[in-house]
Structures are given as structure tokens and as C-alpha cells.
Amino acid sequence: MHLTFPIKFQFYYTTCFNLIESIESHSREANRP
User: Fold this and answer.
1) Threshold 0.90, pTM exceeds
2) To 5 degrees, how large is the angle CA 30–CA 31–CA 33?
3) What number of CA atoms fall less than 13 Å from residue 30's CA on the CB side?
4) Per-residue pLDDT for 1 more than 60?
5) What is the per-residue burial (b if ≥16 Cβ within 10 Å, else e) of 8-33?
6) 11, 10, 18, 16: which is closest to 26 by C-alpha?
7) End-to-end CA distance of the chain
8) Secondary structure of the chain in the HEC alphabet?
9) For 6, which of 13, 16, 22, 32 is 20 to 30 Å away at the CA?
């Protein structure tokens, strides 16, 4: 039970990070002339 929270937090953090990364790279591609 003590180990479940860090794993879940890591999962959400990684998901958010990947989401932001994909949004930023998509924005860069859209802004390209």
C-alpha cells in the first residue's frame, strides 16, 4: 500500500509530461511556415 501512491503519481506525472510534449511539438509544427 505504501508503494502504490508513488507509482500512481509517477504514472500521472509521466502522462501529463507526454501530453505537454506532444502539444508543444504539434504547436511547433503548426507554426512552421
Assistant:
1) no
2) 100
3) 6
4) no
5) eeeeeeeeeeeeeeeeeeeeeeeeee
6) 18
7) 51
8) CCCHHHHHHHHHHHHHHHHHHHHHHHHHHHHCC
9) 22
**Which residue in the block uniquely carries the three cell numbers 500500500?**
1
How many residues would you count in the chain? 33
24 grid coordinates: 508543444
Written as one letter, the residue type at 10 is Q
At residue 17, the 3 state secondary structure works out as helix
What is residue 3's DSSP assignment? T
Query: Per-residue pLDDT tens for 2-32?
Result: 667 788 888 999 999 999 999 999 888 887 6
